Amino acid sequence: MNLLGAVKFPPIQNVIEWPAWLFEDSTYFAFNKIAFIHFLGLVIPMAVFLLGARGSGLVPRGFRTVSEGIVTFVDEQIAKPGIGHGREPYLPLLVSFFLFIFIGNITEVIPFFQMPANARMAGPLVLALVAWGMFISVGVRHNGPGYFKEVLFPPGVPKALYLLVTPIEFLSTFLVRPFSHAVRLFANMLAGHILLITFGVLCISVWSASALVLIQIGTFPGLVAFTAFEVGVSLIQAFVFTILAAVYIGGALHPAH
Predict the structure, then answer these.
(1) pTM listed for this prediction
(2) What are phi and psi of 7, to 5 degrees?
(3) Which of 8, 13, 86, 228 has its CA 20 to 30 A from that of 152?
(4) What would the pLDDT profile of 26-75 be if each residue is shown by its tens digit?
């Protein structure tokens, strides 16, 4: 599209859809910008921890400092309050969630990318299903079939209320939970992405129209402010998704609490 005869913008569908770079004729194996961001979400953490593992000595340095800092943060701020006792086996999963999601979010404000991978529903949904499968398997493994009884028939509830409570618990825990877990991340990142696009397009279009250039006094600082805000949102959404996963696992590990 050509705006004011000077500025060209990509098609509106490119707000969330990007052309394939490889295998464009394949519906399932097409590789585009979103897939590349997810690939970076796998490769970058692996590189950081592999380089950190090469460090030696009592005082951590370089990548070892970074990797240990990330693990300590996730352990102290996410795993410990979310799971508590017995959290150690699930720490690698939580670290993976946090880094993968953060990288998929922060690309929203990085030149060339300028798109959060988690603004597409597929990625958050897969992550939410992994968390869903994990907490159910943890519950069954540590509590046996009685885990489902603890969830569907909470102790202390009058028996007559089970007719109401049990269907609600089933829907909220086993059906709605993974959907809401995914939508929370997806919706926040998509909203932020659209907001940045709106201010970016407004800045460019106003700059191209000399009669309206004074409006830049408000639009450009707004774009800068929202960009900084989205950096924080990228971190917060990675934190929220991961701590919810930890809480779900902790609830399955210690259902009585």
Answers:
(1) 0.85
(2) -100, 130
(3) 86
(4) 667 778 888 899 999 999 999 999 988 876 666 666 778 888 899 999 99
